[in-house]
Structures are given as C-alpha cells and as structure tokens.
Design brief:
Number of domains: 2
Radius of gyration: 30 Å
Number of helices: 3
Largest sheet: 6 strands, antiparallel
Strand content: 15-25%
C-alpha cells in the first residue's frame, strides 16, 4: 500500500484516500463501521488541519488530524493521543493503531459498560409498578410471619414450653 495523501480542502467520506484507509484498517483486522469527515478546517498554533473520524464495530474511535500537506499529523484513539513509531509508513501506522485498539479493547469495553445512559423521557417501563406490587407482597408476607410468630408463642405459653 502506498502512503495515503488526503486533500483537506476537497475531503469527503467518498474520497479515494478515505476508502484506501478503510481498506487498510480492514486488512489489519479492524472493521470500520462509519467514517465522519469534519466539514470545516481548523487552525491550531498556525497549522491548518481537518479531522477524519473512523468508528469501528466495537465502538472504538480513531481520529486523524490531517494537515494541509495531506499528511496525518495527529492520531487520537478513543480520545487519547496515540504516538506512532512509523508515522511516515501509513500501512505500518494503521497496523500499529489496530494493535493499540486490540490491546486496549477490554479496558475500553469495561469503561463503556460503567457509563450510565439516561433513558429518554418517552420510554416507559413497568419496573415502578412491578416494584410496588412486590413491595405490597413483602409487606403482606411480613404481616403473616408476625401473626404466625404470635400464634406460635401463645401455643408455647399454653403448653408451658419456654
């Protein structure tokens, strides 16, 4: 695979360099679910760049910061900056990124599982009603237990058993 050269001024998700990157990720063992290209260029410290985000089937995300020369200047994996050993060899760099994804997959999935997700207000569940019914049953059973205990104690008293 030759190195990817991105044209940041005419970049879209249909661009040949994007498709080549998706194929390279798939060859390295990562299935790309979606590609999102930031519609606007950004400027940081006088360097103009554009962001391309790859979302994978396991919900991990890789974001490329592509500079004006068409090179990938920055790589972020799940929001964390990822330094590359082979930044000039894109095939090796993509293999490095996939290896980092594989290495951190279980930690990433544990972090995702811990996140609380608020349900939309339009979703209704039967849980509150079920909880009320079960609480009523618990109260009724506790009352029956108290009655049985009282009856047992009175029978013990009648028989003279302490």
């Amino acid at each position: 695979m030759k190195n990817l050269i991105f044209d940041i001024y005419n970049l879209s998700h249909k661009d040949k360099s994007i498709k080549d990157a998706v194929r390279a990720f798939q060859r390295a063992g990562a299935t790309v679910a979606t590609v999102d290209v930031d519609p606007k260029t950004k400027k940081t410290l006088g360097v103009e760049y554009r962001e391309v985000q790859f979302a994978f089937s396991d919900s991990q995300q890789v974001r490329f910061g592509v500079n004006a020369s068409g090179d990938v200047a920055q790589v972020r994996l799940n929001g964390q900056s990822l330094p590359l050993k082979n930044p000039d060899d894109h095939a090796a760099a993509i293999k490095e990124i996939v290896a980092a994804m594989d290495k951190g997959r279980s930690k990433f999935q544990q972090k995702q599982a811990r996140q609380k997700v608020a349900l939309p207000g339009t979703i209704r569940t039967a849980a509150p009603k079920i909880e009320a019914v079960l609480q009523h049953k618990v109260t009724a059973l506790n009352a029956q237990i108290a009655d049985a205990t009282t009856k047992r104690d009175s029978l013990k008293a009648q028989l003279g058993i302490v």
